[in-house]
Amino acid sequence: MITFHKSWYRDFKTYYIHFVCLYLTNEFPELVNYTRMLKLMQDVLVPLFSYLTHHQARPIEIAFVDSPKLQVCQNLRTLRHQILKGTVKRGKETMW
Questions:
Q1: Are 1 and 41 in contact, with CB atoms under 8 Å apart?
Q2: Is 12 within 8 Å of 4 (Cβ atoms)?
Q3: What is the rounded CA–CA span in Å between residue 79 and residue 95?
Q4: pLDDT tens string 16-64
Q5: What InterPro entries does the record tag this protein with (predicted)?
Q6: CA atoms of 9 and 21, how far apart (whole Å)
Q7: Cα dihedral sign for 24, 28, 34, 38?
Q8: Dist. CA 78–CA 75, nearest whole Å
Q9: Which end of the chain is more exposed for a tag (fewer CB within 10 A), N or C?
Q10: Distance CA 31, CA 46 (A)
Q11: Is 93 in contact with 68 (CB distance < 8 Å)?
């Protein structure tokens, strides 16, 4: 279930039939069919969610996200820009 979300497959059925059943039979010798797998997944969902939430990376420090500057076509538009009124100014971006 975890590797499905990291794969390029769009649905679990295709992933299970075309990848798991073909390439992972050595790792899982007693592989169940797709219908049985769906029933087993219902019992695993809550423990899996608990495991993933407790083992996710926790941020240690404050993280900042920097975005590129918002380009304005003409300098005359900077004063008329209504969405960012009061914050628009001319200058360099933060990456300088």
A1: yes
A2: yes
A3: 23
A4: 999 999 999 999 899 999 999 999 888 888 888 888 888 777 777 776 6
A5: Tnp_DDE_dom
A6: 14
A7: negative
A8: 6
A9: C
A10: 22
A11: yes
With contact defined as beta carbons under 8 Å apart, do 14 and 21 qualify?
no
If you search the block for the tokens 């169940």, which residue do you land on? 32
Question: DSSP assignment of 64-90, as one string?
Answer: ---------SSTHHHHH-STTTTT---
Its pTM stands at 0.50
In single-letter form, the type of residue at position 87 comes to T
Q: What is the rounded distance in angstroms from the CA atom of residue 41 to the CA atom of residue 32?
A: 12
What single letter denotes the amino acid at residue 24?
L
